[in-house]
User: Which sequence fits this backbone?
């Protein structure tokens, strides 16, 4: 066998993806096959869901603590086992989804996702992003199976804060920019790699075309075709990129910058996708593609994505913090080298400083 041919391990997505107005209200109709399902949710997620649903299912409700730690997932798994749970219903956003995926693996229960935000593709993907007790990125394990059902209700998601939908646009846009240089250097591409490439290119086109209109609809409290398209793109189409493309398409420079930024205090309140969007700019500058980075600035400004530390309330002149970020981003725990082979901390610092004056 040629050394250029690699094994294919496709995690294309959930067994079933249902997207429609009102599907979250009808969740009870999807639970007939389970004897003892349990709900896992957070305080704000449950408030959003229960305020939207006509009738809340009469099921045990387990509350996660918002940490997205393996410790909390283990605690919830113990409680789910004590209830003899055969299905876990995750009602919430990214960190809640990641926690529920851990719980499902620990218990062997089936998994149903009901996203309350379109801020990441967490409800669709087979990955969990885990953090430590100080809210710092820890790891991102790939689970052996995906969810059984994802219920995407745009009317529920549209009730969420604007900043999370904006963050989802940034997080999703990164799928193209992170996978492009990795695929470009690959000795060969499988059929599934090519499918991943096409999905990444398509989501970029969709977001650049309709994000502004989708946000206007969100601001008016209207679910129109543009908002529906962005929600399905942020959750479903984004998830297929890593699902089909595997490690080549899951993360490189932009997410490395996100993970690195979590290592310094004061960043946990910045939404995930905002940090990733900033990471796209830093990655492009590190690649030497300042023209492409500059071309994104008007779009970023139009939707409210940050392209500098300053816009996130962080200080480029804090040399110690910048060095911590750069060392982590260029280090072994991050995947920046997939986009820029041989990347060093000094390279990252240089790109971060360029980003401050990009506009």
Assistant:
């Amino acid at each position: 066998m040629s050394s250029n041919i690699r094994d294919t391990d496709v995690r294309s997505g959930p067994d079933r993806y249902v997207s429609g107005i009102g599907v979250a209200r009808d969740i009870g109709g999807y639970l007939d096959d389970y004897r003892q399902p349990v709900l896992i949710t957070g305080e704000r997620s449950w408030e959003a869901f229960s305020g939207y649903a006509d009738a809340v299912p009469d099921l045990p409700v387990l509350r996660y603590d918002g940490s997205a730690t393996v410790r909390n997932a283990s605690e919830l798994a113990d409680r789910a086992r004590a209830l003899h749970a055969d299905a876990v219903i995750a009602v919430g956003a990214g960190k809640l989804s990641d926690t529920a995926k851990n719980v499902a693996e620990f218990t062997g229960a089936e998994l149903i996702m009901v996203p309350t935000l379109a801020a990441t593709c967490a409800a669709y993907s087979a990955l969990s992003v885990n953090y430590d007790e100080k809210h710092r990125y820890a790891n991102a394990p790939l689970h052996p199976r995906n969810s059984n059902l994802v219920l995407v209700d745009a009317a529920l998601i549209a009730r969420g804060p604007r900043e999370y939908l904006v963050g989802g646009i940034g997080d999703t846009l990164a799928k193209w920019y992170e996978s492009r240089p990795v695929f470009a250097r690959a000795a060969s591409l499988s059929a599934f790699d090519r499918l991943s490439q096409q999905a990444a290119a398509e989501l970029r086109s969709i977001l650049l075309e309709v994000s502004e209109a989708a946000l206007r609809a969100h601001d008016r409290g209207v679910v129109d075709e543009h908002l529906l398209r962005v929600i399905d793109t942020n959750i479903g189409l984004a998830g297929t990129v890593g699902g089909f493309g595997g490690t080549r398409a899951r993360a490189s420079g932009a997410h490395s910058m996100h993970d690195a930024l979590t290592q310094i205090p004061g960043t946990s309140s910045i939404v995930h996708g905002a940090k990733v969007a900033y990471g796209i700019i830093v990655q492009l500058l590190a690649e030497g593609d300042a023209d492409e980075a500059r071309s994104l600035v008007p779009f970023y400004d139009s939707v409210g994505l940050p392209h500098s530390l300053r816009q996130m309330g962080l200080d480029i002149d804090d040399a110690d913090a910048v060095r911590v970020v750069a060392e982590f981003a260029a280090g072994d725990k991050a995947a920046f080298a997939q986009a820029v082979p041989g990347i060093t901390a000094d390279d990252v610092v240089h790109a971060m400083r360029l980003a401050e004056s990009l506009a």
Q: What stands out?
A: The first helix runs from residue 43 to 52. The mean pLDDT is 95. The two ends are 49 Å apart (CA to CA).
